[in-house]
């Protein structure tokens, strides 16, 4: 269980804990079986190359889950993901070590809600940031 983060303790500019995932054949099998997304571009090299990609590539839903994990691992059980937006900018390919990171970009109180603004992203070794995201999290306050 993650340590609970409170609004008062968050500093603008602070980094969220990061992690990485090796996008390998086992990860593809696990993702496809879990999502039931059988698009052959995600697991068949010939199909992916026929579509103009160099190899099989990571699914959007898989990348979204890893980007949101940055937030949910950080904010604790009482934190609440209010808004989240993800963009696909670059293709993440089999063999990539995908790293997921985030940082606090702002904080404010609105209608009694303690809101923290975040930038989150996934990156691969070829392109750097491949999946930029923005989000808002509601955090508990020590003062209520």
What does this protein structure show overall?
This protein is α+β, with helices and mostly antiparallel strands. It has one domain: Thiol Ester Dehydrase, Chain A. Helix content is 23%, strand content 36%. A 5-stranded antiparallel beta sheet has the order 1-3-4-5-2, covered by helices on one side. β3 and β4 form a beta hairpin. The longest helix is centred in the middle third of the chain and has 16 residues.
Structural topology:
Blueprint (H helix, E strand, L loop, with lengths): L14 E8 L2 H11 L9 H6 L9 H16 L4 E7 L10 E14 L2 E12 L3 E11 L6
Antiparallel strand pairs: 1-3, 2-5, 3-4, 4-5
Kindly list the characteristics that best describe this protein.
144 residues; alpha+beta; Thiol Ester Dehydrase, Chain A; five-stranded antiparallel β-sheet; 3 helices; elongated
Based on the coordinates given, report the CATH architecture. Answer: Roll
Number of domains: 1
**Mind telling me the CATH class?**
Alpha Beta
The helix/strand order is EHHHEEEE
Q: What do we call the CATH homologous superfamily?
A: Hotdog Thioesterase
Distance between the termini: 22 Å
Average pLDDT taken over every residue: 92
> What fraction strand?
35-45%
Q: Work out the number of β strands.
A: 5
Number of helices: 3
- Structural class, by secondary structure, is alpha+beta
* Largest beta sheet: strand ordering: 1-3-4-5-2
């Amino acid at each position: 269980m993650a340590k609970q983060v409170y609004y008062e303790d968050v500093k603008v500019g602070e980094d969220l804990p990061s992690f990485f995932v090796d996008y390998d054949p086992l990860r593809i099998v696990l993702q496809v079986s879990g999502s039931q997304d059988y698009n052959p571009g995600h697991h068949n090299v010939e199909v992916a190359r026929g579509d103009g990609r160099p190899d099989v590539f990571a699914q959007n839903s898989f990348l979204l889950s890893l980007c949101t994990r940055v937030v949910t691992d950080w904010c604790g059980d009482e934190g609440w993901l209010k808004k989240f937006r993800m963009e696909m900018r670059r293709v993440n390919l089999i063999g990539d070590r995908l790293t997921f990171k985030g940082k606090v970009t702002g904080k404010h109180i609105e209608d009694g809600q303690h809101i923290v603004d975040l930038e989150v992203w996934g990156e691969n070794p070829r392109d750097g940031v491949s999946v930029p995201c923005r989000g808002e999290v509601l955090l508990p306050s020590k003062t209520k």
